[in-house]
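New to this. Help decode both lines:
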Amino acid sequence: MSKLASRLLGLGVSALAVAGLAGAALAADPIKIGSVLSATGPAAFLGDPEKRTLEMYVERINSAGGVLGRPLELVLYDDGGDANKARTFATRLIEDDEVVAMVGGTTTGTTMAMMPVFEDASVPFISLAGAVEIIEPVREYVFKTPHTDRMACEKIFADIKARGFTKVGLISGTDGFGKSMRAQCMAVVGNFGIEIVADESYGPTDSDMTPQLTKVKNAAGVQTVVNPGFGQGPAIVTRNYAQLGIGLPLYQSHGVASKSFIDLAGPAAEGVRLPSPALAVAEKLPDTDQQKPVVVEYKKLYEEKTGQPVSTFGGYAYDGLHLLVAAIQKANSTEPDAIRDALEATAGFVGTSGVFTMSPTDHLGLKVDSFRMLEIKDGDWTLVETGG
């Protein structure tokens, strides 16, 4: 028996009470969750709402008693959008902070840099980035919450086909996400009987895309244009598109599904369509939609706490954290392998991006139909029927 226990017993405290005190002390040990986000830098419009969401809900979960009777401790680093920094922070989370899991990875580039660190350490990593390469091929410890770029291409092409268009121009960003989505669109376009008649690109620091858009405009038979990309690039494309008077339907990706895109693009955004999670149109969902209670509650809390419009990017962090918490509870353990197994067995989890059901061959767990097709009207998102 320990000296502490002996002293307590000497004071008339029973062995059962000693065990209870030890259990209480153990229960107070925090569960360390890591996060590396691009909260500053060129991807801050993605990373900042993710950071705010994680901090807000960790505090909320802890105030309600934590997880398994223990508080969550969020160990968070800002990579500024730099993949090398992201990898360094990922290594620190494993070697110094000893986290049991990770929710983060704002961009495809930073996520891809960090994945080997978590795979090698056998620690679950839930990414908040979009490219399909994150989960295909399946990696044992890597999961993600946003729809893939391939799904975005499929949703867009289905809408284009339903509207009777068959010839499409592409103008893509050369960032990790833009390049990946372009490749995915090229891979699936033939399934929809659509032909790519123009294929242009722009760099992350380009401030004028009129030369590329002029080539797209003059492409033979072009009927509509798709812009795979994220950040400020798509807003510039949208403004230049209007300035050139192209007048054809323009599609953006889910990489710009936030109010900040509408603000940056201004009146030129009117009529733009894009696939998006349900969160962007939370109150406009029918009451029968099983996601509505989740997205409305999150939107309300986020906007009350931050004074900013909710974004789908913060929603990805909401989903990642709550999927992780549900896995810890299901496993009744904080052992990384047990958490990993429980994540992979996720079924029917209702989040902001859709209803997640994962498997050993699917570490996302969303289907294309969980995407909503939106159109910007009067400076706001509106739901549209595919092909309408």
